[in-house]
Amino acid sequence: MTVDIRRVGLVAGREFIAAVMNKGFVIGLLLMPAIVAALFVVFPRVVSTRAQGVRGEVAVIDPTGQVAGSLGESLSKDAIARRRLDSMKRVLESTPEAFRTMAGGSEAALERAVGTPPELTIVDRQSGADLQAAKDWLTAPAAPGGMRHLALIVVQPDAITRSDGHSEYGSYELYVPENLDDRLETEFYDAMRDAIVSARIRARSLDRAEVEAVMQVRRAASVTVTAGAERQTNRIFNQALPWVFGGLLIFGVMIGGQTLLTQTIEEKSNRVVEVLLSAVSPTELMAGKVLGQMAVSMLVLALYIGMGLFVLMSVALIGLLDPMLIVYLVLFFLVSYLLFSAVYAAIGAAVNEMREAQSLMTPLILALMAPWVFAPIIGREPNSTFAIVMSFLPPVNTFAMMIRLASTTPPPLWQVALTLIVGLAAAVVTIWFAGKVFKVGLLMHGKAPDMRTLVRWAKQA
Amino acid sequence: MRPVSFPALQLKSLRKTFGSTVAVEGMDLVVPQGALYGVIGPNGAGKTTMIRMIMSILFPDSGELSVLGRGSALEAKDRIGYLPEERGVYRKMKVAAFLVYLARLKGVGREDALTRLPTLLSEIGLQGVEEKRCEDLSKGMLQRVQFLAAVIHKPDLIILDEPFSGQDPVSVRILRDRILAEHRRGATVLLSTHVMAHAEEMCQHVVMIHQGRKVLDEPSAGLRRQFDPTTIHFEALDVAADRRRLAVVPGVGRVEGTDGAFRVTVAPGADPSDVMARLAAAVPPARIELARLRLEDVFVRIVTGSADQDADRALRASLAEGSEGVPA
């Protein structure tokens, strides 16, 4: 049977317009970047990882007599603020300049990092104090107008000087009441570490500033050397890239596939399909629908890639991205979309309503979700046996290969070509099978079909 | 001029089964070009299956068919207009966009379709709905839109599966006029219905299907001769006229009725027109007419042989107007 390209084009055109001129589509299109923006820009500003503005007492039992004093210093507002500032500076140093700007500038970030530090008062218990009584103090309600009891710290006797025959120093125990903000607990750990280290250094008559300077080695920003060019390596970027490209691929397939499914079910359930079949053959109808939704997916992908490139450009990281990756993304998208969309179309034609599609959809969704699971495994070891096997195993091969291509050690070219060939072959077989199911299913109403029924239809067509 | 060397439609021993159910069996049919054919039969008789095979939406298990001189409707799609029994629209699409889309699928240019649209819509009583969404139209209006979708490309062959089902009387009248207009334009029309009155009113030729088999294939005019009516309705001018004066007229079999209104059965072998003349001479008539032959009667007579009273009644009920039942 001949396929009339003009009719296929008309069906594809209608399919595209119907999908794009839809409020839900526009909202969905904007929602994704909005969520990403919220995660990266709004979220860190709204959610503080630091305990803010707490006031209370911390009891210390210190048999060494050398820690409690330093602790008062380490838990002071200024010390807490200084530690927060230092850690934020370290984060900022490893963040590209542009992301710093995006997060609102270094100054603002530092200011936010400090916030309002907690106000803590140290209550120094005598070294022989009764532990049980001290614990009771922790659970006892604070006197009216008094301060909350936040923690009891018991320093071990050998925390500063090792006991004979031991190679390790002692440490401390931390007791806290119920419902203590765990961010506050972090402050205690940091302060105790600070106080004990200071005490140990003092006990050896060393200079803390000197020791720290000795320990400090500035981490170098590695430079990736490629044939003829060098570029700044960015670890975060390198780690994120496989995820982003794998995600775009899955996302693109799902957008077109889901719309294809719902629109086919709609055509069938509102009985417009037989009207169409008087004008176009089932093959033309399916081809038109698949191509129309492919255009929708490509549009969405183009928008997202465009947005991504814009962001990279505005943060001056565009040089980190190999343009070939986008070419591969488009290629792999086409191959995997053809395979998956044919199945989506066949399911849409086979069922009477969306509800019935669910059980048939399960394998499809699993196949689409699998790459999310193995993305980190492949991303870490892009040339492992697992990664190589996955790259030749339809229907996940295209996703696996995309992740490998986006990783730091891309696969040899012949493997890429083989993945494409295997993917195309799988797509052809799937389209052939799905086309038969589509043809028979379109005019079948009644009982919800199961997998066995679909196979029977394919044989029958 | 269109060549008239081949029929618009030709079916030869078509057979189609679904599992163990035989839907159509031994179907032969020739529809000449320019004809207006009615396919009648109760729900489930096999009409839709036959039409779907003509449209190459279903494929026969055995037998041959040709459509507009081609081996399959697929090769003449743009010249066929089809209104399926299972018909729908894109609910969110605007009426004009929907019709133009289908016209373009049928090979009509976009501009052409847009030019034709206002006239077509006003002819069918839907002027001004172009920009309305399909979901905003009433059911009757939608059915007319669907009919337009079948004829917007001026097809040579129009196939209408139950075009009147679910229609109000106004829509039925409008549709009937449009179908006749298409026929006058020169299109061959084949329509199926389970409502005998519709076929009776407009078709030149009637094909009856029962349980997948063709039981009658006659010109409407010929039907009248073949199933010559044997009942005369007679109303006397004088309400008190005596029944016995009619009963003695030569050629009269039986007379029933009272108060001057009678049903007169013509005796076997007698000529109804002679009998009518003699009746009028015997008693001055207010009204005298031959009982109208109804396809329903013909159908029931063919299928049941009038022997089984219960089957007879059930069949009549299924053929009466307004009995929708489950679509075949």
Helix fraction bin of chain B: 25-40%
Helix content of chain A: 55-70%
Question: Measured on Cα atoms, how large is the radius of gyration of chain B?
Answer: 23 Å
- How many domains of chain A, as an integer? 2
Q: How many DSSP H or I helices of chain A?
A: 18
Low-confidence stretches of chain A: none
Q: What is the N-to-C order of secondary-structure elements of chain B (H for helix, E for strand)?
A: EEEHEEHHHEHEHEEHEHEEHEHH
The number of strands of chain B is 13
Outline the low-pLDDT stretches of chain B: 322-328
Query: What shape does the CA trace of chain A take?
Result: elongated
Number of helices of chain B: 11
- Gap from first CA to last CA of chain A: 14 Å
How many beta-strand runs of chain A?
Answer: 6
- Strand order in space, largest sheet of chain A: 2-1-3-4
Indicate the overall shape of chain B: globular
Strand percent estimate of chain B? 25-35%
What's the multimeric state?
heterodimer
Kindly describe this structure.
The complex is a heterodimer of chains A (461) and B (328). Chain A is of the alpha/beta class. Chain A is built from 18 helices and 6 strands. In chain A, the strands form 2 sheets. Chain A has a 4-stranded mixed sheet with strand order 2-1-3-4, with helices on both faces. A two-stranded antiparallel sheet of chain A has the order 5-6. The radius of gyration of chain A is 31 Å and the shape is elongated. The relative contact order of chain A is 0.10. Chain B has 2 domains: 9-224, 3-Layer(aba) Sandwich (Rossmann fold), CATH 3.40.50; 228-290, Alpha-Beta Plaits (2-Layer Sandwich). Chain B is 35% helix and 25% strand. Chain B has 11 helices and 13 strands. The model of chain B is unreliable at 322-328 (pLDDT under 50). The chains are: A alpha/beta (461), B alpha/beta (328). Chains A and B meet through helix 1 and helix 11 of A and strand 5, helix 2 and helix 4 of B.
